[in-house]
């Protein structure tokens, strides 16, 4: 077993040293030997349009009419959504809207109830 730290991005134990840098062969992440070790478990903070922090299970309200691509449906202003899940990516809210179904929303178009 090597004395190298686990990858700070994916947690892989197969890191190696290359020219003064640690390298992860699984995800390709490189970091300096002198860099402070970051906590990989730190989650991204997701905020709504008014700056309130969102968490899994929160209820939200849509603040703008949102057209659904590939459909004639529209999510209207004031639509309430219960029990959201936060996910990584551009659309950071995963939810189920009554009458429409499963959707991904951007946090900038919602407010916390």
What report would you give on this structure?
The chain is built from no helices and eleven strands. The chain has 113 residues and is mostly beta strands. It has two domains: 1-39, N-terminal domain of TfIIb (Single Sheet), CATH 2.20.25; 59-112, SH3 Domains (SH3 type barrels, Roll), CATH 2.30.30. Strands 1-2-3 form a three-stranded antiparallel β-sheet, with no helix packed on it. The mean pLDDT is 89.
The number of domains: 2
Distance between the termini: 50 Å
Rounded to an integer in angstroms, the radius of gyration calculated over CA atoms is: 20 Å
Just name the CATH architecture of the largest domain: Roll
Task: Give the SSE string.
Answer: EEEEEEEEEEE
Q: Would you report the number of β strands?
A: 11
Instruction: Summarize the main sheet.
Output: 3 strands, antiparallel
Q: Which homologous superfamily in CATH is the superfamily of the largest domain?
A: SH3 Domains
- Summing up helix and strand content along with how strands pair, one would put the structural category as mainly beta
Overall, the morphology is elongated
Q: Give the overall pLDDT as a whole number.
A: 89
- Uncertain regions spanning at least 5 consecutive residues: none
CATH class of the largest domain: Mainly Beta
Number of helices: 0
How would the blueprint of this fold be written?
Blueprint: E1 16-18, E2 21-23, E3 30-32, E4 60-62, E5 66-67, E6 74-75, E7 80-81, E8 85-86, E9 93-97, E10 101-105, E11 110-112
Antiparallel strand pairs: 1-2, 2-3, 4-7, 4-11, 5-6, 8-9, 9-10
